[in-house]
Amino acid sequence: MSGAESLSGWLPPVASANAARVDALFLALLGLCGAMALAVCVLVITFCVRYRRGSRIPRGTPPRQLRAVEVLWTVLPLLLFIPLCGWAAYDYLWQNRAPSDAMPVFVVAKQWMWTLEHSNGRREINQMHVLLGRPVRLLMTSQDVIHSFFVPAFRLKQDVVPGRYTALSFTPIRLGTYDLYCAEYCGTEHSVMRGQVIVLPAAEFASWLAAGGAPGDLARRGERLFREHGCSGCHAGSGARAPALSGLLGSTVILSDGRRLVADENYVRESILRPGKEIVAGYAATMPDYAGQLSEPDLLALIEYIRSLP
In sequence order, what are the beta bridge partners of 123? Predict the structure, then answer.
């Protein structure tokens, strides 16, 4: 049992690998700050007693400078807290670096519900089923205002912002059902925007996932949208008039002004909705805007189709 789990009176259970790391950092920070506060209190009380009125302490020529003390109280806290900053930075980067085998789940927030979709097309509202021990990568956006995806038992909290994607990864390590909240005030019904994360063993999760898959998975739905909107006329076939999309996600793109960008999900989203914003070197700005023509679920399907291209 971890130290965080033993403090069950004021910490939620540790239900993910992320939670154990966050709790360890939190307890270390709490312990160090507590020790510093205690040291200051002890010094204050000691000086109050030692230099109280009537005490036989020489007061004639107080020192004007104590450089050694000044250096000590500046450098010592710095040396104590810098490792904590490095620890926190490492854990932050680790939490946002999803493993290659992470299971994708696509989250669209709107007043006042969470809509989620798995790569096979299985959709959920205010629930998210995940597999015990399997890393999960959430790709999230909002259809209206800023929301915040918050699962206390996983120590996860990430703002979900309209007009862009935010990502989050975690690995569930304990079976059970855990509360999901919106932690950003998003309107009059904010308090009812809540749900559940359900962690299942392998057999149960496979049965659940297969039972409700939509006709055609997310990538196939994206392919259908790709053809319906005429994208294949320019982006596919020999002599294509637009950049090739095979292997685009995660690659480096050179723009017409010489800049280099990593083609992540936000880049692909912007390139679909506002293609004139970032022009790829060697191509003309001929692609029409699709802003207002595609919903957020449609955009996620198109991105998954592009990801699936060999």
Answer: 117
- Summarised one tens digit per residue, pLDDT across range 1-26 is 444 444 445 666 778 888 888 888 88
Q: Which residue has the tokens 């003390």?
A: 69
Cβ atoms of 16 and 153 within 8 Å: the answer is yes
C-alpha 52/C-alpha 91 separation (Å) is 47
In angstroms, how far is CA 212 from the centroid of its own chain? 27
Q: Answer whether 105's CB lies under 8 Å from 138's CB.
A: yes
Token pair recorded at residue 13: 């259970």
Distance CA 261, CA 243 (A): 14
Q: Where are the domains of the chain?
A: 3-51+65-95, 103-211, 218-308
Q: What is the number of helices (H) and of strands (E) in the chain?
A: 8, 12
What is the model's pTM? 0.77
Minimal CA–CA distance to 212: which of 122, 89, 152, 302? 122
CATH class of this structure's domain 218-308: mainly alpha
